[in-house]
Amino acid sequence: MATQTPARRTSTFNNPPDYSFASHRFHKTLRNSSKQPIVLVACGSFSPVTYLHLRMFEMAKDYVRQNTDFEIVGGYLSPVSDKYKKPGLLNAHHRVHMCSLAAEQTSSWLMIDSWEAFQNYQRTAVVLDHFDYEINTVLGGVHTQEGEHRNVRIMLLAGSDLISTMSEPGVWSHTDLDHILGRYGTFIIERAGSGMDQATDSLARWRNNIYLIPQLIQNDVSSTKVRLFLRRGLSVRYLLPAAVVDYIEENNLYLDDGPGPEKEKGKEKDGAAGKRDVDAGSSKKSMQS
Length: 289
Ligand SMILES: Nc1ncnc2c1ncn2[C@@H]1O[C@H](COP(=O)(O)OP(=O)(O)OP(=O)(O)O)[C@@H](O)[C@H]1O
Ligand SMILES: NC(=O)c1ccc[n+]([C@@H]2O[C@H](COP(=O)(O)O)[C@@H](O)[C@H]2O)c1
Known about the structure:
Layout: E1 36-44, H1 51-67, E2 70-79, H2 92-106, E3 110-112, H3 124-138, E4 142-143, E5 149-150, E6 153-159, H4 160-164, H5 174-184, E7 186-189, H6 196-200, E8 210-213, H7 223-231, H8 242-250, H9 272-279
Parallel strand pairs: 1-2, 1-6, 2-3, 6-7, 7-8
Antiparallel strand pairs: 4-5
Bound molecules: adenosine-5'-triphosphate and beta-nicotinamide ribose monophosphate (NMN).
Residues 43-45, 80, 84, 86, 123-125, 162, 165, 171-172, 176, 284, 287-288 line the site of beta-nicotinamide ribose monophosphate (NMN).
């Protein structure tokens, strides 16, 4: 059997100008010392952020409380860099601002990290390493009520459509998958049209670090649909936080057709998601380490 290259953690990070890591809602003290502290990180375009993106965190919170020995000490949305060049990807300043409005006005625990947004494209494995560094090295992890230090485990929060791309050839390197799923782990939220089994079949070797969360109330709101509605002059109110809708209207966002045809996620079949990105000149193939 071929020897696998062990996943190595990135240890030096270039920060964008004026960058600071958000920690105003990070819980420095573990409420229950018998639990393992975790931070949830959702990586994505968030163009624009929808209620479904925010609900992923609430679903994960319920799941963690009912089914695991983890305690969530922080939750972050990490908008991808403009260099990701996905169709419909609005300028990072707007995307980060909308995420911040959404988190501050609708949540008591979510935060935004702009580290990957304001620089060159960073692979998800590197983004998780950056969180590990900021939380465990810079912030010093957390303490129990008795004052005992604990390292925080970083975990990726993603929809099943994103996880199914992990089985598509050329999108993720094996080393990165081993790093993300072996070292960190993931919570997968079921997404309409994108099967959970199909998403995880080829990831079985990391099954102990993969937690599947069913959507008990089916909701297939996507950023793509929101952008389509906006282009057609239709209302998107109640699909996203009011402050985000107001911001979109005030700044006349998403009125242009953009550079290429948009396909909706979750509804795609047989690798169409991969094709979309190749067609759009995106760097899915070059996202491997
Ligand atoms: N309706 C949904 N159900 C489950 N997961 C979702 C849903 N919408 C988004 N996600 C997840 O949120 C994360 C961020 O995704 P992203 O910003 O690409 O959202 P999106 O709505 O799929 O965007 P787009 O429509 O522009 O492709 C991904 O892990 C994605 O799987
Ligand atoms: N190899 C990788 O690290 C890799 C590959 C594909 C997508 N992603 C990430 O997944 C997120 C969502 O991507 P999509 O919106 O294209 O599904 C983005 O944050 C992107 O950076 C990472």
